[in-house]
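Internal tracking record. Fields below are filled automatically when a chain is submitted to the structure queue. Please do not edit lines marked as system-generated. If the sequence contains nonstandard residues, flag them in the REMARKS field before resubmitting.
Queue: standard
Priority: normal
Entity type: single polypeptide chain
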Amino acid sequence: MTLVMKTQIDTLSFVFTSTGCGFVVGAFVGGYLCEKINQEILIVSSVCLFSAATAYSPWSPNVAVYITVNFLVGFGLGFCEVCTNTLILVLWGSDNNTCEKLMQALYCILGVGATVCPLIVEPFLLLNTATTNQTASVPNASIGVHHSSIRVPNASLLMNLSVSQPYAISSSYHGLVQYAFLTVGMIGILTAVVCLAQSLYFKNGIHPYKHTDDDEEETQAAKPHKDKTLFRCVVIFITFCIMFLYESQESVYTGFIAAFAVEGRGLHKHVGTSLTSMFWAFSTVGSFLGIPISHCLHPAIILLVNSVMMSISMGLMLVVVEESSIVLYISTILYGLGVSTVYAAAVSWAHRHITFDGRASSLALFGGSLGEMTINPLVGHLFEADAIWMMYVLFCLSLLQLSILIFGVFFVIMYDKKCHPNINSQEKTTHIQEIELLVFIREATV
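SYSTEM-GENERATED OUTPUT FOLLOWS
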């Protein structure tokens, strides 16, 4: 895109901030509207918005317009994710097992999209040509982005620019890159049309999906403390923190691991590229495995395993300092599997204890976006001093995530014992699983 927009990398970097801000605004607006309007209509509208913005972005007349268009892309992504989460929780929220499997399946499909989308774009990049009316040297650079908890690369930024040799930049740049964006946008529009046809066929109308009276009674029995403001706020805050830490770790790893392999370990550039691809591949595999696993294990246990795997991965990076690509590959596999089910498991854990509506979902997404926008610049600044700082930061964040999770499980158990000693059998079963989790943690640390 630096070639298409005829600008420098540092100028184009404002796109990241613009897209992140758009995602946050879209999440909050979507969290409010999804309780007022049919969620399917909102999903169709948001998909059309970010698809059209993606298709138009490379034809932006200047950088300012390009940044504005990417704000709309982020807005649509945040809006769509909140509405999708809310729709799943409303339709199947009364059945924890079904809801958790569907959440895992959703993020598995998103991981597939993150893997397939660059393959759609690659032919356009290979066929791309530039005339040589005016030339300028382009230094070696690498730009990549993973946008927020939706876990799909921002379509308008998904191409990794790896320039190993100086290229000629034309004052009138011609190529097929623009049509790559158009193709991705058209796929999104087609998806929106299919969703709209389904909604019209079943005549769902404009009113939002809501819990039935039977669902409300079942939810009230399963979550006797759901209306307690203090309890609800603490659970949402814990979920917010987990999202903040998870998204910041995932975005930092995908954004810096290639540079770390080259600068921090002195390995070849193709190793760094393959590490990023391997991360996404095993993250998708982990999301797929999370579908049957979520039927057997409590979300808190899944989160514990995820956090431990992430900590072990970063610890391995810190302990083994020699220039070995095998260690990087093993750590990347563990890290990809570790982060794969964090989001869905965190939402499922919160939904077991409170009514996780659109507003709560928007706050969780805000935590993820905030983590990306704050931790990434910090790591980038430290990375310039020494690449190993990236691993120190990620190791500390993974340990903090594990500590917050243990606190959250302990808080829920203690609150229920104090305020609701006569809870029903379903809630007792849930707490038995959580108590066993705490016992396992204690024994593992002795």
